[in-house]
Design brief:
By secondary structure, the chain is α+β, with helices and mostly antiparallel strands. It folds into two domains: 153 residues, no CATH class; 171 residues, no CATH class. Helices cover 38% and strands 17% of the residues. Strands 7-8-9-6-10 form a five-stranded mixed β-sheet, sandwiched between helices. The protein has a three-stranded mixed β-sheet with strand order 5-12-11, with no helix packed on it. Strands 1-4 form a two-stranded antiparallel ribbon. β8 and β9 form a beta hairpin. The protein starts with 7 loop residues before the first helix and ends in a 29-residue tail after the last helix. The model has no long low-confidence stretch (mean pLDDT 94).
């Protein structure tokens, strides 16, 4: 008998009375961001904006309805991540990628949940129906199914559905850097000792595209400005990726098995569209604004684009210690 699991994107069910992951009736809640992380970096009372910039919450106000089973499962996962976190880069790098997927996925999905609720309520006030495209329903539904691997017999075989990179990173001990893209299911976090970049449903394609630079940074401790540039490369690569992620999902007696399928290039359409340096420079300038670097500083007439990761002429990796900027 096949396994039937809750999919909130089928009927767009985002209700405070139903567990966000299992769909069971509940009165319990859990935070989107782990409590220990908010306490450690003291950002619980800081504001986070929704995508359209008209609505914001404090991080500590972001809570998800959940069953007791789901709450306990995430608390157990949190203990594993927290223990690894204390070990710095080595501790995090030693973790099974599936655990990192579930942990980062909890945060990204939690923010996606709030985006869904906000958009539904906004349209309701205007007397309009809340709808999602078939493409987004499928993407988000698959992501939700994968997250249920924490509580259900859902397993991953063969090629994994994500690209997850962990690397050494030099930050002041009190700085917590976080970015996400809920529509494209992306996550980045930088703290003292390590950084994480995760594309949670790219089937490894973005990681493969950035393999050359990822190989170059091994054994190096990145400067924060390099971390921001690396995430910008991942983010823009995802933006110009021209194929949707496909999966082989087998629902068997012993559970659901998910295998990421390799992208099949159709005709002359490449995996990635044209890399536009103008668009990338604007994206990068958004990430580098804390350093006072503008788009015009990145793109200068008759000069290659500014990079802190690679020498634009030799393509050699730039030694982080040679970067004279604060961290």
């Amino acid at each position: 008998m096949s396994l039937t699991l809750f999919n909130p994107f089928e009927d767009l069910i985002f209700d405070e009375h139903f567990c966000f992951l299992s769909g069971k009736l509940t009165t319990e809640t859990m935070s989107v961001f782990p409590g220990w992380l908010m306490d450690h970096f003291k950002f619980g009372e800081e504001k986070i904006e929704m995508m359209d910039k008209t609505k914001s919450y404090t991080y500590s106000d972001l809570e998800l309805p959940c069953s007791l089973e789901v709450k306990e499962a995430f608390e157990e996962l949190d203990l594993k991540i927290q223990a690894a976190y204390k070990g710095g880069f080595e501790g995090m790098a030693s973790l099974d990628e599936e655990l990192i997927f579930q942990w980062t996925g909890r945060i990204v999905y939690g923010l996606l949940y709030y985006e869904m609720v906000y958009e539904r309520d906004r349209l309701l006030k205007k007397g309009e129906d809340f709808q999602l495209s078939a493409v987004l329903k499928e993407r988000f539904g698959n992501f939700h199914l994968m997250l249920q691997s924490l509580i259900e017999p859902v397993s991953f075989v063969g090629k994994k559905p994500w690209s997850i990179s962990i690397f050494q990173l030099k930050y002041s001990s009190d700085i917590f850097s976080y970015r996400d893209d809920t529509v494209n299911l992306m996550f980045s976090m930088g703290v003292n000792g390590f950084g994480i970049i995760a594309c949670l449903q790219d089937n490894g394609v973005i990681g493969e595209k950035q393999k050359d630079i990822l190989d170059k940074i091994k054994s190096h401790t990145l400067h924060p400005i390099q971390f921001e540039e690396l995430y910008a490369r991942f983010h823009y690569s995802d933006y110009i990726y021209q194929y949707k992620a496909e999966y082989k999902i087998e629902n068997q007696d012993d559970g659901i098995k998910i295998e990421a399928l390799p992208a099949k290039v159709i005709g002359s359409k490449p995996l990635f569209g044209f890399w536009d340096e103008n668009i990338f420079a604007q994206l990068l300038a958004n990430y580098w604004q804390v350093y006072g670097i503008e788009r015009e500083d990145i793109l200068k007439f008759q000069k290659p684009p500014l990079s802190f990761l690679e020498n634009p002429y030799s393509k050699d990796f730039i030694n982080p210690e040679s970067i004279d900027l604060p961290f």
